[in-house]
């Protein structure tokens, strides 16, 4: 089993190494990591078959709902190995460490779709936020191969933990922490960084009722499995600038 995220919690003169799926609360450790565990969930396709890391198409926008039923997240196999041990900072000034991509190539990443500026997110009718391929020009910045929110042209570096490159976004997208097992399966286990989940549920009650039958249902934590589809299958209209 490959576990890309491990956390050292300093306690007195000793140190304890803790796997992500064993942490049950927010972790703000002395070594600068901000993490919260959720249910350990296997990523599967529409037929319930396990998603295999080696079968993901590079630079395809995949979507799965995690850690809550009403919160969509991106899954992306980048065209190259990501940076590692990237220091990021939340809007409130807390620093944390993004360890990098997973998989044999170290190129698989996952991020919450909720933009940290004004919570633009993937909607079933349209999506203003997505990963834009290398070589695909964007109005948000000169760099390509980035996550872009078309609402106000915030750009995030998917290769560096979705660090903000340009635009009004005040912090990186929250990272979904993944595990890659020896059988090539993928599992979501938690969220790294400062998320916008509380504000999201409060701001989009009517939308959540329309899409998921109410905020209460949308707030249920995903259990056991999360279905992965392409962004084109999830939403009717992909809007990119």
UniProtKB/TrEMBL annotation:
PANTHER family linked: CYTOCHROME B-C1 COMPLEX SUBUNIT RIESKE, MITOCHONDRIAL
Lineage of source species: Bacteria, Pseudomonadati, Campylobacterota, Epsilonproteobacteria, Campylobacterales
Pfam families: Rieske
Molecular function, one GO term: 2 iron, 2 sulfur cluster binding
Transmembrane segments: none
Protein's recorded name: Rieske 2Fe-2S domain-containing protein
Annotated InterPro entries: Rieske_2Fe-2S (IPR017941), Rieske_2Fe-2S_sf (IPR036922), Rieske_Fe-S_prot (IPR014349)
The organism of origin for this protein: Sulfurimonas marina
Assigned keywords, A-Z: 2Fe-2S, Disulfide bond, Iron, Iron-sulfur, Metal-binding
Ranges of residues in domain Rieske: 103-187
Keyword set includes GTP-binding: no
């Amino acid at each position: 089993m490959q576990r890309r995220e491990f956390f050292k919690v300093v306690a007195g003169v000793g140190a304890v190494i803790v796997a992500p799926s064993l942490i049950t609360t927010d972790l703000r450790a002395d070594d600068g990591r901000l993490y919260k565990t959720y249910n350990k969930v296997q990523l599967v396709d529409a037929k319930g078959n396990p998603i295999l890391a080696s079968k993901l198409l590079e630079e395809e926008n995949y979507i799965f709902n995690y850690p809550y039923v009403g919160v969509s997240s991106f899954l992306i196999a980048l065209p190259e190995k990501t940076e590692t041990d990237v220091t990021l900072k939340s809007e409130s000034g807390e620093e944390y460490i993004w360890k990098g991509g997973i998989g044999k190539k170290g190129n698989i990443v996952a991020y919450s779709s909720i933009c940290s500026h004004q919570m633009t997110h993937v909607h079933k009718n349209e999506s203003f936020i997505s990963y834009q391929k290398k070589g695909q020009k964007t109005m948000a910045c000169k760099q390509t191969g980035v996550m872009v929110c078309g609402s106000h042209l915030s750009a995030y570096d998917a290769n560096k933990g979705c660090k903000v490159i340009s635009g009004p976004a005040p912090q990186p997208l929250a990272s979904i922490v993944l595990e890659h097992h020896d059988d090539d399966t993928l599992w979501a286990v938690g969220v790294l960084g400062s998320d916008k989940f509380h504000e999201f549920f409060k701001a989009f009650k009517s939308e959540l009722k329309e899409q998921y039958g109410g905020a209460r249902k949308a707030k249920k934590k995903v259990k056991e499995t999360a279905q992965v589809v392409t962004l084109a299958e999830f939403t009717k209209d992909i809007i990119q600038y």
